[in-house]
């Protein structure tokens, strides 16, 4: 009996996509960020973004949302975004294909939840998300087509790849900090709130020339930033 109720609940959920039973909306938990990213001007890189799935023609959340993970993966190259949606393990039982504005997704099958990838997606507009569903009905499997509205919550966009950063040992009286980072990153060295030096790298190795020589036991904060990457900061102590 328990199993039958589970299947029935899933059937009610899936057949309500686009015009059915209200449920929980994805992506309602706020995410703190140092600065919001511009969805229309993303640098090459990898990001995550929360989204909502609404019943078609409304802003009422669809129960289909419960069969998706809370974030989409976004990969940007040459100003074009590729978006990957992931369904849950339970969603694998029913969702067999997916389209976005009529374009068929590239599917990667996974036991933990299949992924559906779409290319050249505008993150700032709403999209029609289409489903091909296989559901049990009267002892048979029935294929159904349903649709919903997909909206990306661009205020939650966040880079997912950390910029690389390493530093070499710094000795007293040194007037530079050296190390390696992601090519094209900006490296800044501070002592407290005072900026001692900064540089933008043209290759992996970097050298930051300092305004004054450092003293033993000083603590320096070395920060690497690059568009499309998570910022990384390391604290180093000048040798005694």
Can you describe what's shown?
The protein has two domains: 2-159, Immunoglobulin-like (Sandwich); 165-237, Immunoglobulin-like, CATH 2.60.40.10. Strand 6 and strand 7 (115-118) form a beta hairpin. The strands form three sheets. Strands 5-4-8-9-1-2-3-7-6 form a nine-stranded antiparallel sheet. By secondary structure, the chain is mainly beta. It is built from one helix and 16 strands. 33% of the residues are buried.
Q: Sheet bearing the most strands, described?
A: 9 strands, antiparallel
Number of folding domains?
A: 2
* Strands ordered across the widest β-sheet: 5-4-8-9-1-2-3-7-6
Q: In the CATH hierarchy, what is the architecture of the largest domain at level 2?
A: Sandwich
Question: What would you call the shape?
Answer: elongated
CATH topology of the largest domain: Immunoglobulin-like
| Poorly predicted runs of 5 or more residues | 1-9, 14-34
